[in-house]
Amino acid sequence: MDLLKQEKGSITLFVVISMLFFIMFLTGMYMLSATAESGVIEEQARIKEIYEQGINDIDNVYATLDNEFSTIKISNPIENLKTREGNELQFTWEEIAEIAENVSNNIKVTNNTQEFTLTYKKNRCTIGVGDYTTLNGKRVRILGFNHDELTAKDGYGLGKDNIYAGISFEFVDFITNEAINSTDINSGGWGECKLRGTLNSTIIDELENKKYIKEVRKDYIETYNDPASVTISNDKLWLLSCSEVWDNGYEDGYGYASAKEGGQYKYYNTINAMYNSNNAKLIKNSYDWYLRSPHYNSSITFCFIHASGACHSSLYRS
Q1: What string of DSSP letters covers 33-46?
Q2: Environment class of 211 (CB within 10 Å of its CB; exposed 0-12, middle 13-18, buried 19+)
C-alpha cells in the first residue's frame, strides 16, 4: 500500500510536472505566435513605409526626368534688353507649332517677354521678338508671345485649356496687294472690310502652315469717330491696328485712330516706334502698308504706314 501510494504520488507528480510543461509549452507557443504576429504587423508597416517612400522617390525621379530631359524646356524669360537683333529660326513649322503651344502653357512667358531660352531636342537656343523665318517664300517675324487671346480655350486641342496663342507672327514681305475695301468707305471698320474676308479664306488656304494657325480675338473700331464702338472679330489673319504698333498718337489716341484696338506688340515696343516719326524698322519693301484702324476724322479712310516708316491715312479701294 505504501508502495502504491509512493507510485501514485510519483504518477501525480509526473502528471503535475507534465501539465506544467504542457502549460509552459502552450504559453511559449502563444508568446511565439504573438511575437510572430507582432513581427508580421511591424514588417507590413515597414513595407508600407518603404513603398510609400518609394512612390515619393519615383515621383521625384519622374519630375527630375521631365524637367531635365523633356523634349521642350522654356527658361529664363527676359523682358527688357537694350538691343536685340533678330535671328533666323532653325525650325520647321511643325516644330514652331509645338514650341508655341509650350509657350502658351508657360505662365512665366508674358506679352512683355522679349526673349527666352529654349531647350529643344537636346539643343539650346534663344528665341525672341524679331526672330524670323519664311512662309510660302515670304519672310515672317515674331511680334510677341502670349499676346493674342484665343477664341476658344481648346484651340490647342480638345481637353486643353489655353488662353493665348503662344507666338504671334507678322509678314515682313507682302502677301497681297488687294485693296482693303472696294469702295471709299470705312463704315463697319475692320469687321466689314473686303480684305478681311480674303485673308481668312483664299489667302490662308494657300499657306503651308495653315493647320497650325490659331483663331484669335481682335479688337477693332466699328465707327471711325466713336471710341466706344470698339468691338471684336475672330480672325486667323488680320491687319495690324495703330495701337498694336504705337502706344502713342494724335490727341491721346493711337496713331490716327480714335481708340485702342489691342495692346502694342513687344517687337514694336523694342524698336521705340513713334506714330509721327519715321522709323526704318517699320519700312516694308519701301511700300505703304495697310492698318485696320479707320482715321479718327474721316469716314472714308484707313490708317497706313508710309514707306518712310511713319503713320499716315488715305483712301484704300480697288
Answers
A1: HHHHHHHHHHHHHH
A2: exposed
Residue 179 buriedness (CB in 10 A; 0-12 / 13-18 / 19+): middle
Q: What is the phi-psi region of residue 287: left when phi exceeds 0, alpha when psi lies from -120 to 50, beta otherwise?
A: beta
What gap in Å lies between CA 192 and CA 215, rounded to an integer? 18
- Report residue 251 as a C-alpha cell: 490727341
Lookup: cell for 114: 522679349
pLDDT digits (tens, 9 = 90+) for 120-146: 988 999 999 999 999 999 999 999 999
**How far apart (Å, rounded) are the C-alpha atoms in residues 91 and 133?**
8
Distance of alpha carbon 240 from alpha carbon 216, whole angstroms? 13
Residue 73 has, within 13 A of its CA and on its CB side, a CA count of: 14
Taking 80 as the threshold, does the pLDDT of residue 23 lie above it?
Answer: no
Distance CA(282)–CA(269), nearest Å, equals 12
CA-wise closest residue to 129 among 84, 164, 160, 171: 84
Q: How far apart, in Å, are the Cα atoms of 318 and each of 184, 195, 304?
A: 9, 11, 16
Give the three cell numbers for residue 249.
Answer: 498718337
Q: Which residues contact 304 (CB under 8 A, 6 or more apart)?
A: 288, 289, 290, 291, 311, 312, 313, 314, 316
* Beta-carbon count within 10 A of 191 CB: 15
Handedness of CA 118, 121, 124, 129 (dihedral sign): negative
- Distance CA(237)–CA(216), nearest Å, equals 9
